[in-house]
Amino acid sequence: TIGVIGYGSQGHAHALNLKDNGLNVIVGLYEGSKSKAVAESNGLRVGLVADVARESDIIMVVIPDTSAAQVYVEWIRPNLIPGNTMMFAHGFNIHYKTIIPPDTVDVSMVAPKAPGHRMREVFTKGSGVPGLLAIHQDVTGNAREIGLAYAKGVGCTRAGVLDTTFKEETETDL
User: Fold this and answer.
1) What's the CA gap between 147 and 2, in Å, rounded?
2) Whole-angstrom distance, CA of residue 106 vs CA of residue 144
3) pTM exceeding 0.85
4) Residue 40: which residues within 8 A CB-CB, separation 6 or more?
5) Which residues pair with 108 in a beta bridge?
6) Rounded to a whole number, what is the largest CA-CA distance in the chain?
7) Catalytic site residues?
């Protein structure tokens, strides 16, 4: 089960591409989010962030960097279990240590190199956008394989996936 936290520019593309590839996706949103109706109308299951984090094996954080740390502390961290995978589409919060996941979970990044609307458009035409893959923490020994599988699910492997680090992705993006 993949929990996509957020349904904005990147979140909608990630969730829909994963769903179209037959994966079990749940979108995690805050109480009262206007995106709930949109995600549900797109055929996605939606829940509160804490519930989605509790139910998911992979948790992809695609919300703004400015709110991610607070969302993590309040709703994601208390619901992580050993062996989960925390994923990010941007390296900022891990690189600058505003989020410090426990040493019992894998931490990786799949960063598509396009805005969400373009990522989705290209995917629906049978292609994909290139992506970056970084592994910050590999407790299970499977972080790279899970990251590549996720990259395939969102369509990045159709165009190519390059290895990077959280530091390199963050600093070149800024």
Assistant:
1) 12
2) 9
3) yes
4) 46
5) 87, 135
6) 39
7) 90
